[in-house]
Input
Amino acid sequence: MIPFSASDAALEGFNVIRRHWRVVAGWAGFNLLALVMVVVLTVVLVSAAAATGVGGAAGADRLSAVLAALVGGLGTVAAQVMIVGGLFRLVLRPEEPAFLHLRLGRDEGRLVVVALAWLIAALLLGGLAETLARAASPAWARVAVDVAALVLGVWLTLRFSLAAPISFAERRIDFGRSWALTRGRAGALFGMSLLSLCLVGMAALAAVVVMFAIAAAASGLQGVAAVLAGADGLQRHPGIYLLEFAGQVVLTPVLWVLGAAPLAAAYQALSNNESAA
Output
């Protein structure tokens, strides 16, 4: 029987990075390659749409914007889902053969369904809370409704937080199983999630500080201004902008590992405890 430790689960992301840093680096390379492919495909489709001249110049511009948003959104989602799936495969089913543990199949499809279910539930709860808050006349009543909705949303999120690793480990979408596994563990899972979010925030902040330090060392205040300008700084300081962009590409898989690995660790510990009981 493996006792569930919220702190150990929250630190699982760092353990994964330490034990499998080459794989995480490979995910960063995959993320960059996927982004390049999305950009190339978007340029090709937008150029083709502009060449057709459908609906005149304004119609071609609207079609190009829709295609760019669609391809960019779907490509980004697919890449991130594959990285999360690769993480779950590495932690929960490491014996499966796959290059960098990356695939795009039914496992990843179930992760998308779970994410969509979470999004729909969040929108419904938010809409209901907003409707009730508007109906409440005193200001304190509206605040009470908002606080109650927030507490309920956090609690439900914790109770269904293991749906994603369950869908991967057991190859089925079963929110009821997450509800059963997390019974009596909401407090521990809240501590795990809070610590995990703090670690993700610290990692992101450290990356930003390093980026500003490099930019300041390279070009002084102008380099810092280029980082703050984002894409607008590409023409003035292309090297610094590309460095910032590369840092974001590398950091994204790291943040996914730090945020999602605790869920896999919590599922392993709680499911093992269930089997041993």
